[in-house]
């Protein structure tokens, strides 16, 4: 009986290890592009123009949407949804917030909405 319990325990451990290793999680499911990107950023509306070659954009996720927090007194872009376009790269979708592409290394922004224009060409 003792040997049967021992064999059963080893079999259970082996199955647990195999099941754990079998999970092939896509890095995109882990929000691997959440973080800070640095590079060239700009913002323009009817009265204000801001350009910076040493700007930064911090990306965060809230639920199913992403927020882009710009430095350099540039207004933030919030509530952006994405669609996967290739191996771990995404492009923004939805009304008024298209023009953002992102992956683990690069962030490119060209958003025009309500008379405002945001651009970013950043890396990390």
From TrEMBL:
Keyword set, alphabetical order: Signal
Record's signal peptide: 1-19
Keyword check for Signal: yes
PROSITE patterns xref list: PROKAR_LIPOPROTEIN (PS51257)
Protein name: Lipocalin-like domain-containing protein
